[in-house]
Amino acid sequence: MKVLAKTYLIPVFLCLLNMGCEKVKDNEFSIPTAVPLTSNPDQLFKEPYRPQFHFTPQKKWMNDPNGMVFYKGVYHLFYQYYPEDIVWGPMHWGHATSNDLIHWQHKKIALFPDELGLIFSGSAVIDYNNTSGLGTKEDPPMVAIFTYHNMAFEKAGKINTQSQGLAYSLDEGETWKKYERNPIISNTNKKDFRDPKVFWNPETNIWNMVLVAGDHAEFYTSKNLINWTKESEFGKQFGAHGGVWECPDIFKLKVNGNGEEKWILIISINPGAPNGGSGTQYFVGNFDGKTFTSTQKEPKWIDFGTDNYAGVTYNDAPNNQRIFIGWMSNWLYARNTPTKNWRSAMTLPRTLELTKINGEYLLKNKPVAAFKKLQKPVFTSNKVQLKANQKTIFKYDAFNQSEIRFNTANKDLQLVFSNDVKDSLVLHYNSQSKTFSIDRRKSGKVAFEKNFGKDIHKSNVLALVTDKIDFQIILDWSSIELFLNDGLYSFTEQIFPQKPYTQLSILSTEDQELNDFTISSISSIWPKKIAKNE
């Protein structure tokens, strides 16, 4: 296994001393590594394309993250789950926990469908003051509020198929009891009435809820999590409306970490995203506990790739962090991706921050700090010299379990990941047009659905106004996540190479330097052996 790098400024003896490098040519270095990427169709969490450091269910279908709440040092992740097949079916809430947002423990199914319907998306809170009366102040209940979807109503052609239900747990999410007088919010005349996000508002000392109703968001208040009052609506004339609004979230952030604060409303939409299918937009504005207002008419997007959808944030995260997780797929092709035994993954957990550039508020997202503990540098260089129109090549057998980081001048740059069966994934930054593109048309298996490899995915990156650009590129067995300038822009895409990528070619139209260049291996979060019946 080798890494070859064209680099003029690393003394050969340092490379040999620190990383066992072998000088192959005047402009290439070979760095041996220890662990190749090997899949095993018969071993759980080693199946082909199984992510090694992204959350996936042990088996079967998963989609939206739900009920994300932090309690007693534990991050709870619930999610849309169908335990009988690897395609979407009657929805349950799956459950997993983590102490660090990186390593996950799979738990038993939390919520099952009942006579009122399937269990669609929603949120969870800790009722510390026992306002609901479902626990005690000494033993506060964990309360889940979710959407019921009534299949009998749907089959009968009724419009009011969805209502909001409640369940609670008195043992930190291990077991759940449905509220005996569900639904807590009924529905008589609304279609696509769903996905409640609930949180305690310390400014008004009341519970807030935002949910969606087709083409807009609705805001509710409650004193006890059970009885809710509708306060306002937002969105019919705002943002993107190419499809149904879904999975709302609302929270407050400081601007650039200073005294100014703004409220952020997240809305997922399907279809209607910039590069097709599913995507997540956001609005920056103000919220008084009852009404959200914004002067922003046009949509802004959390992620410009095609595979970051239905993302929401944690309630009660420590240190006032706003931590986001999205579903790493797209409804254009989610049911058809070439995996077996399981289907779908979550994005890496990301920290959200709000910045202001040239008078515009922009939401940044980047991997949580704990992700660093999985990384081990296998190649580092203070400067990698690029000569105009001359490729710089790195060869490394484990690119599909790696991170590549560097910063460079705000100039044209192309990066191509490839292998010996002619798969290629092309990333391109055009400094003149201020666009960034991802071309996965020849990235590996793409024919499983016509939209997956149909187009080059292009995005405007007009806020890249700095003289230098920081690149962070993270590849897993079936995904790439790319972050520019500390998460000012992010791009998340699924990929299914026929074999792991083993070569990275970097090309510039001008002489330039890649500074602080590092390739790091990333450890798997899964045990080496997991019994299938676990």
From TrEMBL:
It comes from Flavobacterium polysaccharolyticum. Belongs to the glycosyl hydrolase 32 family. Residues 382-520 form the Glycosyl hydrolase family 32 C-terminal domain. This is Glycoside hydrolase family 32 protein. Coiled coil: none annotated. Pfam families: Glyco_hydro_32C, Glyco_hydro_32N. Gene3D superfamilies: Exo-inulinase, domain 1, Glycosyl hydrolase domain, family 43. InterPro entries: ConA-like_dom_sf (IPR013320), Glyco_hydro_32 (IPR001362), Glyco_hydro_32_AS (IPR018053), Glyco_hydro_32_C (IPR013189), Glyco_hydro_32_N (IPR013148), Glyco_hydro_beta-prop_sf (IPR023296). Keywords: Glycosidase, Hydrolase.
